[in-house]
Design a protein that fits this description.
Elements lengths: L2 H49 L4 H4 L14 H8 L5 H32 L5 H10 L9 H11 L6 H7 L3 H11 L4 H9 L4 H9 L4 H16 L3 H6 L8 H12 L5 H32 L5
Length: about 300
C-alpha cells in the first residue's frame, strides 16, 4: 500500500470520527434543549394539579408547596356536585356530545374513505376533490348560514346543533382514504371471489387492518369536539346545555377570586383529564397512523 493510500485512509478515519463526535454533541444539545422545554411546559400543569388539592389560603403560598401538606379533595366534590356551578352537568354534556360526534365521525369517515379509495364509480375523483375543497373554507364563514339553517330547523339551543355538523369531517375522510389506498386490492378481490359483498369486505377485511388510522382519527376528533368553544357559545343559550369549554370560561369570570381559585383549578384539571387519558391510551398508534395516512395520494 502506498503512502498516499495510507494517508487517505487515516484522513478518512479522522474525518469520520470528527463527524461522529459532532453528531453526538449536537444530539446531546438538542436533547437537553428539548428536555428543558418539556420541563417548562409541564411545570404549569403540575402546579395546577397540585393547587387543585389545596385549601384556598394555600394556593398562592410562596414558596410553592408542590406536594400539599393538607390534601383537600373537597374541591372536586364541590365543583361537580353544587348545582349553582352546573359543572357536573356540563361535564356530562361534553361527554355525550363528544362521544356521539366521535362515533359518527369515525363511521362516516371509514365508509366514505372506503368508497373513495376502493370503489370505482363515475366522477369519484372529482367528487372527492369537491368534498376535500370544503376544508379550505373557514368555519367562521359558514357560522351565520348555519345559524339561520338551524333556526329554521328548530334545533337552536339543542345539542343537535352541535351533533349534526360534527359527525362529518372532510379531514377524516381524507385520512381514511389515504390509508385504505395502501391496503392491497388483492385482499378485496379474494373476498369477492369467496362471495363477500362490499359491506362484509369493509367490515371484516379492511377495517381490522385500519386500527392505527382509526385510533388516530378518534384522538383527533375527540380533541376537536371536547375543546370546541365557538359552536356551543353561539348555538346554545341555556346554561344547562353548555359544554366544558364555555362553562369553564363562565365559571372563571363569575368566580375569579382568591377564595375560589382552588375550585377553578380543580375544574381546569377535570377538563383536561379525558384528553390526557385518550391520548395516553392511543399514543402508540397516533404517529404511525398519521404517517400511514399521508404516504400515498
Amino acid at each position: 500500500m502506498s503512502v498516499q493510500a495510507v494517508y487517505g485512509t487515516v484522513k478518512k478515519t479522522i474525518i469520520d470520527k470528527n463527524f461522529k463526535v459532532k453528531r453526538t454533541v449536537l444530539r446531546m444539545i438538542v436533547t437537553i434543549v428539548m428536555f428543558c422545554l418539556g420541563i417548562a411546559i409541564i411545570i404549569p400543569f403540575l402546579w395546577m394539579i397540585s393547587a387543585s388539592f389545596k385549601r384556598p389560603l394555600d394556593v398562592l403560598k410562596y414558596p410553592v408547596e408542590w406536594i400539599p401538606k393538607y390534601w383537600y379533595p373537597q374541591n372536586y366534590i364541590d365543583i361537580m356536585s353544587k348545582q349553582s356551578y352546573n359543572f357536573g352537568l356540563m361535564y356530562l354534556n361534553s361527554i355525550k356530545i363528544t362521544a356521539i360526534n366521535v362515533t359518527g365521525s369515525v363511521l362516516t369517515s371509514c365508509l366514505a374513505g372506503y368508497a373513495f379509495a376502493r370503489l370505482k364509480f363515475k366522477g369519484r375523483d372529482h367528487l372527492f376533490l369537491l368534498y376535500l375543497a370544503t376544508m379550505i373554507i373557514p368555519p367562521q364563514v359558514t357560522m351565520v348560514p348555519r345559524f339561520m339553517l338551524f333556526d329554521f330547523l328548530g334545533i337552536i339551543n339543542t345539542h343537535w346543533s352541535l351533533i349534526l355538523p360534527g359527525i362529518f369531517t372532510p379531514f377524516g375522510v381524507f385520512m381514511m382514504r389515504q390509508f385504505f389506498m395502501q391496503i392491497p386490492f388483492e385482499l378485496s378481490e379474494s373476498a369477492r371471489i369467496d362471495g363477500a359483498g362490499e359491506i362484509k369486505t369493509w367490515a371484516q377485511i379492511i377495517m381490522p387492518l385500519a386500527k392505527t388510522a382509526i385510533v388516530t382519527l378518534v384522538i383527533l376528533t375527540f380533541c376537536w369536539h371536547w375543546n370546541d368553544y365557538e359552536n356551543p357559545l353561539i348555538f346554545l343559550r341555556d346554561r344547562k346545555l353548555l359544554t366544558i369549554p364555555v362553562g369553564l370560561d363562565l365559571f372563571k369570570d363569575e368566580a375569579f377570586t382568591d377564595a375560589n381559585l382552588n375550585l377553578i383549578l380543580a375544574a381546569a384539571t377535570l377538563s383536561i383529564m379525558p384528553i390526557f387519558i385518550i391520548f395516553t391510551a392511543g399514543q402508540k398508534y397516533f404517529i404511525e397512523g398519521m404517517a400511514a395516512g399521508a404516504v400515498k395520494g
